[in-house]
Amino acid sequence: MYGTWKNDHIDPEKRAQIEVLNNKLINSIKFNDTVAVKSMMSDTLKNATGNKVDTIISNVSSAFESDQYIVLDEYNVHNLVSGTSNSLPANKKSDNDYTLNYVSLTREAYVSLLLVKDMTGDILITVVYGNYDGKWEINILELGQYRLYNKTAMDYYKLAKLNYKKEYFIDAANDLFLAKECLTPASEMFHYKKEKEVRDYYDKMISEIDKKYQMPITLKDIPGNPQIISVFPQLKEQGYFTTVRYLSSINISDSIALAKENEKVKLEVQKIFTGISINKKATLYQAFNEMPDGNHPVKYYGFVDLGVAQPKSF
Fold it and tell me: Is the pTM above the cut of 0.85?
């Protein structure tokens, strides 16, 4: 018999077997036990990854908040022959609908999509087990960001469109950046139904925003003519913060003069970038005396501007 069974429709005994393996896998990743992870892998996967898996597990393990997880979805697939290309539509009937594509190296496969909390959201662990004469071994293992700050790529896509309509262009750009960060949580295996729509919108909007705000922007109404050189989201454990970098002619060791200038810079920034401080925990400002090139560290002086509430209509 061949076909695909999902979640509660999977044989309970088989689900229990896989749950034991999933527990071992997540625990091993959390505690950086690469030997244990490799012991669960098929020879095909071991040969394909080599020692790269050691680096991947080491990097990810520190991000796991615990070895607890929730199951997003599970699939038990029976093929007529090994080497079959499987396409598994989630059929969620929501914007978070996705399709999973992979090649099954065995006639029977079991796919687990597991969510583990990290400091900024949820990591998706996608595991494809193959049944080798009654023994389950991992043929595919992918790890990627599924949520950032409790929102999926599709959530950020919807926010971007709303912010664009309000002409909050920096917020829209930030939302699109975060959407792309968690758009493909299982590399080329995982595809949202609206992935192409998101990518097309991203390209269109970012191009439009780049044309609207051509950097550097000189603030001619402020003495010394400071220049805005970049605006981008900075991801921290507490959330993401819009960060404004600008060049100042005031020496960054002169904190008093810089603070006075920054008050003027903030007012100009709020005029240029509509909505940049509305309903935000904070906006970060970084004053530089020389242009950062990304190749070596450049000193700056930082300021934190607490957000303001959304104006109410009466």
Answer: yes
